[in-house]
Specification:
Blueprint: E1 3-7, E2 27-33, E3 41-47, E4 52-58
Parallel strand pairs: 1-4
Antiparallel strand pairs: 2-3, 3-4
Length: 71
């Protein structure tokens, strides 16, 4: 059962982390859009340890580990 812990549109961009577990070790990235022009990057993910779901804007230059846009 997923719980949406934050809908961050309007919150400052930040790095993905499970706010319940306090680490990013167990994150499964489900959706990512890279920043384009004036639009920020956005990510959504689930923590596989506690099944918490979150999504928010991410800082410029960040991408999920191993993620290759367009490939």
């Amino acid at each position: 059962l997923h719980t949406f812990t934050e809908l961050s549109m309007g919150l400052p961009a930040h790095l993905p982390i499970c706010h319940h577990c306090g680490v990013d070790d167990y994150l499964i990235y489900e959706f990512y859009t890279a920043p384009t022009g004036n639009d920020p990057g956005v990510v959504s993910y689930t923590c596989s340890a506690c099944e918490t779901f979150a999504g928010h804007e991410v800082p410029a230059g960040w991408a999920p580990p191993g993620w290759r846009v367009g490939h």
